[in-house]
UniProtKB/TrEMBL annotation:
MF term (GO), any: metal ion binding
Free-text function comment from the UniProt entry: Degrades free oligosaccharides in the vacuole.
GO biological process: mannose metabolic process; oligosaccharide catabolic process
Pfam family, any one: Glyco_hydro_38N
Family membership: Belongs to the glycosyl hydrolase 38 family.
Organism annotation: Saxophila tyrrhenica
Catalytic activity reported: Hydrolysis of terminal, non-reducing alpha-D-mannose residues in alpha-D-mannosides
Protein name: Alpha-mannosidase
Length: 1077
């Protein structure tokens, strides 16, 4: 039956109707919420129902903290502090100063019915709201978080309320000069109080503002047709009804046609459709960078307090934070805020990730430092919150050591989250979610957020990029979206949470065109699902073997040289103390106690300085004043601890006729020259030959030097002949191998200088084009003999670099006293450095051919190309090494050792050690001082093997000499925990220490366990199956276990007559726990 309704399509066109011109209509959208000329006409004009400001409703009084101090609440509010009257418009400074405002306000009678009342504070710098009784309530930061919602107790009409505002004269990114983030700080900045008002907010208007924002963003995408119509209708409605309260509600109804009707609560996330993007709040706070540690402590309390408030108001919100150090600071300085965080951790909404002490650099710290980052991190999280972290969270670091997956697994973490690799400026890393595989084969599931930021603004684009930039969708299309303002911006805002609700509402409304974002899940939920897929074989993730080399920030291997040197020396000192203190608790004075508390403090300080803007050299000058002070403390405590341990072992000052004794803290027999203690010996050197021999070295192994021509010297020993001409080495002849190692016409140990102006990030980057500016530096003085043998010979030369800078290098050769080790040419350099944007290096041309060179890294070796075949090869024009780099061909090789350097390059046959840079931002005075650097050239017949590995250790760990009344009595104890001579020479006993929870050593953080234990950390250093036996040297050991880094027992081991037999796979790091009887 035909319908009764008959539409009549008119025969004649009634009027013209044009096609909407999208670019004009799209541009119009800005008029609705913009701050420009229409702001008094548009939606924003309706945002506040009322506003009050100034006296008598709001009274401001201020007390400025003296100098640049950062007083506590109690100090700031104590009797006698004079609070003077202040008003809006007053300005405060200078940079880094702190000003406490007492804010007294009364809500007027006729406001009592109004909706949400907020206190708005805008001073252009960071601030914190405190309650009258000293509770830190919430952080404020310019632009993105200027409101504090008045709690009900502050809304009593006619009642006076008091709060305090702690104003800190710095912005999120400190106080840079001239508005360029990385320029050195301007100490004279002032900030004026622009807003100190109480407002009544129209929440419908604010909600419509969020609606319009997200629909408007969609109107700029493939969604332009529908979304643009919705926006246009909203604007037209608003205009037609003059922005009345009723029309705001109608406008919202129009928006909901597109966003769905559940966007006003967390219910929007309650649908069973599979989400793709997991939103997770975070606030990446750099532990120092463009501000000092002292400011970080406040950034933490501000940011995390904000999050506790938001977690209460938004049930779907989840927030993650890393860095045990930041939690510890909060615990020590802000117990109220810490308890608030703890409560939310217990509820599961505030989540701990990372498992490390700080978000540290991973290129430069030594192996044991990486281990301790996890040990101190995980133990802190476990002791305070009853749980370890399961995900290593390190979004922002400048390259990723190849052994991280192994160490993560051994620290109870199977997952790794990061981001920085998206900054590569040469090659685009090809994966988002993948298995990252260590040198030893250990793997973690790695995820890099495809939105390519760890502080997303939670916009439409962040959600869509989570799919459009996802590179592993073949395996799994889900991703994490870490959002929130970082670095003192205070983390996620309510605005961001509102926007995400609307993004989700939109997906459920319009379908697959918008990736579905989910909230309320955890990072662990996200990885659990991936891990399950991998475990069940549902998905086989793509693998990436070896380091995640960062194609940027290569200057950070070299910038801030003193800091890097302090790190290396502190690691060595800690190693030696732990070894000697362990022995002292076993065979030393009965009264001696393992100095766990002091060691913990030393470690925590060293670990703190390894933060990813501190050790790499990318922080401002203030941060290095701080770290210098901390290192000085570390060395002071360390030297005392070392003396205490030595004394407990019976060493003395030699005054009672005791004899010199060498203390070797490394795992193999050493025969090198050693400096004699001046207190007992007139002779400068001794050498080890059974005991310490102080007679002259035998003629056949002695070193000699002679001048053969004007400014030409020849240094010789049994193994090498070194010709020094004009300060450089023109011939380095290997006597036994009958091989000249310097190419004809070349000079090795040649100083070279480069122009060093990267594209932007000065302290961070050295760019590929710097290589083209190479200039040789010529010695400006004739060389002179400074040591004439027979133990050691040396020749010194000075090179004037400029009118302000010079370098004196001393090339030396020692008697070849150790028949197991090839001889090396040692170089000592004293540099006075005052250059601008220059890079000093030392070059070693060789006669060796290989397409790959080897570099020591933590617990292993990384091989990298010596050529520029592909862009991936070329990107590695400057790389990181630890104690040595090596270029070997079949039958012969050359190693370059160093005592404090990390930057290196091998191009073709030329090796190059990076010495000093001269960036002027963010520290205008970086490295402008005296430096002392040592390196060595070690030619070797045969392949790269344990001789280089050991030489690298020997060069860095001095043989210590001290006096002992009965040195022979110590021999047995000093032989404990070393490998027997038939063990694989690739095995290294790297660390000897006491158990973390031993009852006589525990720091009380975790429950002490019965018994006393020795912990041995070992590794295979050359990349092959290694077997060996660890001798107990008479120490009685009852039981032994293989354990993880956290000293959890994994399997029991048996102890044979010779000691503990171990077998390690290639580049495996293994920890053994021995229970003492
Ligand atoms: Zn960072």
């Amino acid at each position: 039956m035909a319908s009764a309704f008959k539409p009549t399509y008119p025969q004649l066109a009634e009027r013209p109707k044009g096609k909407q011109i999208h670019n004009i209509y799209r541009e119009r959208l800005r008029m609705f919420t913009g701050q420009g000329q229409y702001k008094k006409q548009n939606l924003m004009s309706k945002l506040y129902d009322a506003r009050m400001s100034g006296s008598p409703n709001i009274e401001l009084h201020v007390w400025s903290a003296p100098k640049l101090s950062r007083p506590t609440f109690d100090e700031a509010t104590k009797k006698g502090n004079e609070y003077r009257k202040a008003k809006k418009g007053d300005s405060f400074g200078p940079s880094w100063s702190t000003h406490w405002f007492k804010v007294q306000f009364t809500v007027p009678e006729d406001w009592s019915y109004n909706g949400q009342l907020e206190f708005h504070w805008e001073s252009g710098c960071e601030a914190m709201v405190w309650s009258e009784d000293g509770k830190p309530l919430q952080g404020l930061s310019p632009n993105n978080r200027t409101e504090w919602i008045l709690p009900s107790e502050c809304r009593e009409a006619g009642e006076e309320n008091t709060i305090y505002i702690e104003m800190a004269c710095n912005q999120m990114f400190g106080n840079p000069t001239g508005g360029d983030t990385i320029q050195p700080l301007d100490p004279h900045r002032y900030f004026s109080v622009r807003e100190a008002d109480i407002v009544s907010v129209n929440l419908d208007v604010r909600a419509l503002y969020y609606d319009f924002w997200i629909v408007g963003d969609a109107a700029h995408s493939w969604e332009e047709h529908q979304a643009l119509q919705i926006c246009t209708q909203i604007m037209d409605k608003f205009i037609a009804e003059d922005g009345s309260d009723a029309c705001i509600k109608d406008c919202r109804e129009i928006a909901k046609r597109y966003l769905g009707d559940k966007i006003d609560s967390a219910d929007v996330y309650k649908s069973d459709k599979m989400p793709l993007v997991q939103g997770i709040g975070n606030c990446h706070i750099d532990t120092c960078w463009l501000w000092p540690w002292a400011e970080t402590k406040r950034k933490v309390v501000r940011s995390w307090s904000n999050q506790c408030d938001l977690l209460d108001r938004y049930p779907e919100h989840r927030f993650v934070a890393s860095q045990a150090q930041q939690f510890k600071w909060l615990e020590m300085n802000y117990p109220y805020a810490f308890d608030r965080v703890k409560k939310h951790i217990k509820e599961g909404s505030f989540q701990t990730v990372g498992g490390s002490w700080v978000e540290h650099d991973t290129n430069l710290p030594g192996g044991e430092s990486l281990v301790r980052q996890f040990v101190y991190g995980q133990r802190y999280f476990e002791s305070r919150f009853g749980q370890r972290c399961r995900t290593f969270w390190l979004p922002d670091t400048f390259g990723y050591s190849t052994q991280l997956p192994q160490l993560c697994r051994l620290a109870d973490m199977n997952r790794f989250f990061t981001q920085k690799l998206s900054w590569n400026n040469i090659n685009n890393f090809p994966h988002t979610t993948f298995n990252w595989v260590s040198l030893d084969g250990s793997q973690v599931i790695c995820h890099m957020a495809p939105a390519e930021t760890y502080t997303a603004m939670a916009n439409f684009g962040d959600v869509t990029r989570s799919v459009t930039q996802h590179k592993s969708m073949d395996q799994d299309a889900t991703s994490l979206l870490p959002f929130g303002f970082g670095d003192g911006g205070g983390g996620p805002t309510s605005e961001q949470l509102e926007k995400l609700r609307r993004c989700r509402g939109m997906s459920d409304q319009i379908g697959e065109r918008m990736p579905r974002v989910q909230m309320g899940g955890t990072v662990e939920d996200f990885f659990d699902r991936l891990e399950k897929k991998a475990a069940t074989g549902e998905t086989e993730f793509v693998t990436w073997y070896g380091e995640l080399y960062f194609e940027l920030h290569r200057g950070t291997y070299t910038s801030q040289a003193a800091n890097k040197r302090n790190n290396r020396k502190a690691e060595i000192l800690l190693h030696d103390i732990e070894y000697l203190a362990t022995l002292a608790t076993i065979g030393g004075d009965k009264k001696y106690k393992y100095p766990k508390k002091d060691l913990d403090e030393m470690w925590e300080n060293v670990l703190l300085c390894q933060f990813h803007d501190c050790l790499p050299g990318s922080a401002i000058e203030m941060c290095y004043d701080d770290s210098d002070e901390l290192y000085a403390k570390v060395f002071k405590t360390g030297n005392r601890l070392l003396e205490d341990a030595m004394e407990a072992l019976g060493f003395d000052d030699g005054s009672r006729g005791s004899l010199p004794k060498a203390v070797n803290t490394l795992g193999w027999e050493r025969k090198g020259l050693l400096h004699m203690p001046t207190s007992t010996e007139p002779k400068r050197y001794g050498f080890i030959d059974g005991g310490i021999n102080v007679s002259n070295v035998p003629k056949d192994i002695a070193a000699s030097v002679e001048q053969v021509d004007s400014d030409v010297f020849v240094l010789k020993n049994k193994d090498l002949e070194v010709k020094v001409e004009g300060g450089a080495i023109t011939s380095l002849y290997d006597v036994k191998a009958k091989r000249e190692t310097v190419p004809k016409g070349s000079k090795t140990n040649q100083l070279v200088i480069y122009d060093d102006k990267p594209l932007y990030w000065q302290a961070w980057d050295v760019e590929v084009y710097h290589l083209e500016s190479r200039k040789e530096l010529k010695a400006t003085s004739e060389a002179k003999i400074t040591e004439a043998g027979p133990e050691r010979v040396a020749v010194s030369t000075t090179t004037q670099i400029s009118d302000k800078s010079w370098i004196t290098t001393t090339v030396s050769l020692a008697a070849s006293v150790d028949s197991n080790q090839p001889s090396q040419v040692d170089v000592d350099a004293e540099v006075e450095w005052h250059e601008t944007m220059k890079f000093l290096k030392v070059e070693f041309p060789t006669t060796i051919t290989n397409t790959e060179a080897s570099y020591e890294t933590q617990y292993g070796i990384v091989r990298r190309p010596t050529h520029y075949n592909t862009t991936w090869d070329m990107a590695k024009f400057e790389v990181c090494c630890h104690r040595w780099a090596d270029l070997s061909e079949h039958g012969y090789g050359m190693s370059i050792l160093n005592d404090s350097k990390y930057g290196f390059a091998t191009a073709g046959k030329t090796m190059r050690l990076s010495l000093l840079r001269a960036p002027k931002a963010p520290d205008a005075h970086a490295d402008m001082k005296r430096h002392h650097i040592r390196w060595a050239i070690l030619p070797h017949a045969g392949p790269l093997d344990e001789r280089t590995v050991r030489a690298g250790f020997n060069f860095n760990y001095p043989l210590r000499t001290a006096s002992h009344p009965n040195p022979a009595k110590l021999d047995k104890l000093l032989s404990a925990f070393k490998l027997t001579s038939d063990s694989s020479p690739s095995l290294i006993v790297d660390t000897v220490k006491r158990g973390e929870d031993d009852e006589d050593a525990s720091n009380g953080d975790m429950p002490a366990k019965k018994g006393r234990h020795v912990i041995l950390r070992m590794y295979d250093s050359l990349g092959g199956l290694s077997r060996g036996t660890i001798s107990m040297g008479g120490v009685k050991v009852g039981k032994a276990w293989k354990c993880n880094l956290l000293e959890d027992e994994l399997e029991e081991m048996s102890i044979g007559d010779e000691g503990l037999e171990v077998e390690l796979r290639a580049f495996e790091v293994a920890t053994f726990k021995l229970r003492l009887e």
